[in-house]
Amino acid sequence: MPGTRTFDLDLLRCFVTIAETGSFTRAGDRLGRTQSTVSLQIKRLEDQIGRAVFARSPRSMALTPEGERLLGPARQMLRLNDAALAELFEPDMVGRVRLGVPEDFATAHLPAVLAAFAKAHPLVELEVTCDLTLNLQAAFHAGQFDLVLVKREPSAALEGVRVWREPLVWVARDGSAAAGAGSVPLVMSPEPCVYRKRAIDALEAMGRKWRVAYTSTSLAGARSAVNAGLGITVLPREMVPAYLTAITSDHDLPPLYDTEIALIEAPGLSDTAHRLAQHIVAALERGE
């Protein structure tokens, strides 16, 4: 009978890991299992529920509609399981975790998330570094971080777990800042910068001339330059301060598409770092 069925959490963990990594091979690497073992576990899960969770072809893999419906509840069950185990067996978790974060995301969304983790695990040392996404990725692959949060294109088939979606907007001192300008003055971070590339690509795609009027390595510096009327910039919609204005394509500016924030874990991650990764994913999914 349906009421007597019980999910196997190991099978659900395998399923969620494949969905997050986009690959049976990468999921096996993260779980410490062979690809054949991972495939067998998914077959067991599909036999258990009587439905396919992945649609596979020689060149692609995607969640089925049933897999999409299962993913959210599966994550919730795993989080409850892991939280209960942590409460029982990891009250005195210790160690150092090196986390790399884009500055704007760290400023807007992470302080409360990290504060909650620090309160629950006061013996853990958090080392947080803010930088541009491409610099964070390079440092991560050089072994300098345990975890990184990076900006990426929503359609990019890259490593990591999506934890946030960011609608982007043009931002200026007032709505007339770009109107009638022969060359759009941009206030940007130095290269490499995801938002800088996004702005330039969008302007060039519509044939609009542009120039970099001001370069700042800090979010505060860029906001100040825009407020002084030196140019316009690109920010996540939620990060537009009250003293600046989000302007639209009605002002001869192209639309900007969303970006994503993804969390990437280093191979051989410590239990402490993995617990922080779980905490970040869970908190951001709840919109904290």
Give structural notes:
The chain has 288 residues and is α/β, with parallel strands linked by helices. It has three domains: 2-87, Winged helix-like DNA-binding domain superfamily/Winged helix DNA-binding domain (Arc Repressor Mutant, subunit A, Orthogonal Bundle), CATH 1.10.10.10; 94-154 and 269-285, D-Maltodextrin-Binding Protein, domain 2 (3-Layer(aba) Sandwich); 168-257, Periplasmic binding protein-like II (D-Maltodextrin-Binding Protein, domain 2, 3-Layer(aba) Sandwich). Helices cover 43% and strands 22% of the residues. The strands form four sheets. The chain has a five-stranded mixed β-sheet with strand order 4-3-5-12-6, sandwiched between helices. The longest helix is centred in the first third of the chain and has 25 residues, at 65-89. It is globular and about 65 Å long. The two termini are 38 Å apart.
| Fraction of residues in helix | 40-55%
The main sheet orders its strands as 4-3-5-12-6
In the CATH hierarchy, the architecture of the largest domain is 3-Layer(aba) Sandwich
CATH topology of the largest domain: D-Maltodextrin-Binding Protein, domain 2
* Helix and strand composition category: alpha/beta
Average the pLDDT over all residues and give the rounded result: 83
Strand count, sense and barrel status of the largest sheet are:
5 strands, mixed
CATH class of the largest domain: Alpha Beta
Order of helices and strands: HHHEEHEHHEHEEEEHEHEEEH
What number of domains?
A: 3
Specify the CATH homologous superfamily of the largest domain.
Answer: Periplasmic binding protein-like II
